[in-house]
Design brief:
Elements: H1 3-16, H2 27-54, H3 60-82, H4 84-107, H5 117-139, E1 141-146, E2 149-155, H6 168-185, H7 193-196
Antiparallel strand pairs: 1-2
Helix pairs in contact: 1-5, 2-3, 2-4, 2-5, 3-4
Length: about 200
């Protein structure tokens, strides 16, 4: 994989986090969202691996779409069975992710270099980190998914001064600051943002 592709994928990954800000208000939601994202990603890789050996090239994208959507539905049903209240918050975002992947497969030609495990790993870590920090700042606790809703494992009085940082607007602003720092730190090694695109 080229250095150009990895840098571009990393930047797009950071921008994409903004789409999931409403779903990362608690660590429990962020954790299940990251697991769903990985289920979607690896089901897509599995479909591509199987299609290389058992299917023709023209039918491979359709097989990948079907397996990806099936994996998303199975994961959604699994969450509904164990964590029904949390599932109500995450369901739209799980299927938005699956639909985005489906449109990507249907409307664009597949490029093997565009798939980056680094990007997927960074995306998952940042989603989990953002949800953890937001819940600590806003509610003064850390929660895990439970059948009755949320199980609090750490609790302390939240700070009213920095609570704004845990809201949707505050999180987007924080992501923008982190992205600016990320880009500024890389200026010594990369010519410019325009040159990477």
């Amino acid at each position: 994989m080229s250095k150009y592709t990895v840098k571009r994928a990393s930047v797009l990954c950071i921008f994409g986090i903004g789409l999931f800000v409403p779903a990362t208000g608690t660590f429990a939601c962020g954790l299940l969202l990251v697991l769903g994202f990985w289920v979607l990603f690896f089901s897509s890789l599995l479909a591509r691996f199987l299609s290389q050996f058992f299917m023709r090239t023209r039918s491979a994208p359709l097989f990948e779409v079907c397996l990806t959507l099936s994996a998303t539905i199975m994961y959604d049903n699994l969450i509904q069975g164990f964590f029904p209240l949390v599932r109500m918050m995450l369901c739209p975002y799980l299927f938005i992710t699956a639909l985005s992947r489906t449109l990507d497969l249907c409307l664009t030609a597949y490029d093997a270099d565009a798939e980056s495990l680094e990007c997927v790993g960074v995306f998952g870590i940042m989603i989990a980190g953002i949800s953890l920090v937001r819940e600590l700042v806003a509610f003064g606790c850390v929660s895990l998914p439970a059948p009755s809703g949320f199980l609090r494992i750490i609790s302390f009085p939240p700070s009213n001064v920095i609570r704004f940082a845990a809201t949707g607007a505050g999180t987007l602003i924080s992501c923008g600051i982190v992205l600016w720092i990320f880009r500024s730190a890389g200026n010594d090694h990369t010519p410019s943002l325009r040159s990477e695109w």
